[in-house]
């Protein structure tokens, strides 16, 4: 059931999806997960959308993780279903054929941090607070946190954060490479949209192939990664966009890419 728990805006090739449960810090329940999943699946085939931004409603929270009140009512089998649903959703975000920017506006704990980890780029407001706090509830990160965090910040740093369950602020998140940049809360969406606008100036097929090469290449050895990169490059050669880029360079004008 979608009762306004996820807001959608599509402007200038950028789709902004806003988690909209501010009274409970935009926490994730089954309805939110399924609604977000449906939007992510749909945008994959929407050629008008070049970039996706995910953020939260309000000034306090991006996403405080799983809705623990809902979780407390679940039998063990339902908890397993929830974990599988959230894990599959975040994997879909990570492997979406378009760049995803997480605009982290405040608290992002547990599943909130895991959602940000699944994005390609993370921009955080100065009041952001992030962390994988699951061990303090006698569980572990179950939506990709144990895998994505060490790949982003290194094994030792990830173990420290997960073993202690500590929360870190925006400055520390930037220092360890958990986020790409930080800014005042009032500038957060502007920064995210500016980043998205820069991406929208590039070739859509090139971006899709670059993301593919990075995601899959990182999971293998260098030689295999280079082969993946080569195959991704070959995909761009016969495109009209590549010829348009060369023509625009020659004619000293901005290219007009159509994803063809």
Written account of the structure:
- Helices cover 48% and strands 16% of the residues.
- The protein folds into two domains: 6-200, Alpha-Beta Complex (2-enoyl-CoA Hydratase, Chain A, domain 1); 204-251, Orthogonal Bundle (Lyase 2-enoyl-coa Hydratase, Chain  A, domain 2), CATH 1.10.12.
- It starts with 5 loop residues before the first strand and ends in a 9-residue tail after the last helix.
- The longest helix is centred in the first third of the chain and has 19 residues, at 76-94.
- β2, α1 and β3 form a beta-alpha-beta unit.
- It has eleven helices and ten strands.
- The protein has helices spanning 30-43, 68-72, 76-94, 111-118, 145-153, 155-164, 170-175, 188-200, 204-217, 222-236, 240-251; strands spanning 6-11, 14-19, 51-56, 61-63, 100-104, 107-109, 121-125, 129-131, 168-169, 181-183.
- The mean pLDDT is 94.
CATH architecture of the largest domain: Alpha-Beta Complex
Output the helix-strand order.
EEHEEHHEEHEEHHEHEHHHH
Radius of gyration: 19 Å
Low-pLDDT parts are none
Q: So how many helices?
A: 11
- Please name the CATH topology of the largest domain: 2-enoyl-CoA Hydratase, Chain A, domain 1
The helical percent reads 40-55%
Q: Kindly estimate the percentage of residues that lie in beta strands according to DSSP.
A: 15-25%
Shape: globular
Number-wise, the strands total: 10
Task: Kindly report the average pLDDT value.
Answer: 94
Distance between the termini: 36 Å
Q: Specify the structural class.
A: alpha/beta
Characterize the biggest β-sheet.
6 strands, mixed
Q: What topology, given as strand order, has the largest sheet?
A: 1-2-3-5-7-10
Number of domains: 2
- CATH class value of the largest domain: Alpha Beta
**Annotated CATH homologous superfamily of the largest domain:** 2-enoyl-CoA Hydratase, Chain A, domain 1
């Amino acid at each position: 059931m979608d009762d306004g728990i996820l807001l959608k805006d599509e402007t200038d090739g950028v789709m902004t999806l806003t988690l909209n449960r501010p009274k409970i810090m935009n926490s994730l329940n089954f309805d939110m997960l399924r609604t977000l999943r449906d939007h992510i699946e749909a945008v994959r085939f929407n050629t008008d959308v070049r970039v996706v931004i995910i953020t939260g409603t309000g000034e306090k929270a991006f996403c405080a993780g799983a809705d623990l009140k809902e979780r407390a009512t679940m039998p063990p089998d339902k908890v397993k279903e929830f974990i599988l649903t959230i894990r599959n959703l975040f994997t879909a975000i990570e492997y979406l054929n378009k760049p995803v920017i997480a605009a982290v506006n405040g608290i992002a704990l547990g599943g909130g941090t895991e959602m940000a980890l699944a994005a390609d780029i993370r921009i955080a407001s100065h009041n952001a607070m992030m962390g994988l706090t699951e061990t303090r509830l006698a569980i572990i990160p179950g939506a990709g946190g144990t895998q994505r965090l060490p790949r982003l910040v290194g094994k030792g740093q990830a173990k420290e954060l997960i073993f202690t369950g500590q929360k870190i602020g925006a400055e520390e998140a930037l220092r360890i490479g958990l986020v790409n940049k930080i800014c005042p809360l009032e500038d957060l969406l502007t920064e995210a949209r500016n980043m998205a606008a820069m991406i929208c100036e590039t070739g859509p097929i090139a971006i899709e192939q670059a993301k593919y090469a990075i995601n899959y290449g990182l999971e293998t050895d260098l030689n295999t990664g280079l082969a993946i990169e080569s195959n991704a490059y070959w995909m761009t050669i016969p495109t009209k966009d590549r010829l348009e880029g060369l023509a625009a360079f020659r004619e000293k004008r901005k290219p007009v890419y159509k994803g063809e």
